[in-house]
Amino acid sequence: MSPQQTVEAFIAHWNACDTDAIMAMCAVDIIYHNIPMDPVVGTAQMRAVVEGFMRDIARCDWQTHAIAASGNTVLTERTDIFQFKDGRTAAIRVMGTFDIGADGRITGWRDYFDSAEFQREFASPNGGA
């Protein structure tokens, strides 16, 4: 798989809410950083974050508006839409950067987004989107 295809497959696994498939695409020493927050290092910590987040999620719909690859780095412009099990929805605009290692696994994942938008969308009792 090319680096871009790797990221496209990773996004498809998020849209399927398939934590095991998401994690299988990540290097053991991945650095996962939602830029307004502290980074998470390694698959054990990342799995804990992903599973904690997915606990309340019924469905993901990450819409990729633009994607570009340069070597082993892939940039995405997305809207990440989440439907919660209680019926709420949240949508955040995201710029993502993925680094792909020689073995084809994701070694770095950085998402940049507006923390005020995130807080508004995820805190809204009636859903934000």
TrEMBL record:
Query: SUPFAM superfamilies given for it?
Result: NTF2-like
Query: Where is each Limonene-1,2-epoxide hydrolase domain found?
Result: 2-117
Q: Which domain of life is it from?
A: Bacteria
What's the protein called, per UniProt? Limonene-1,2-epoxide hydrolase domain-containing protein
- The organism of origin for this protein: Erythrobacter neustonensis
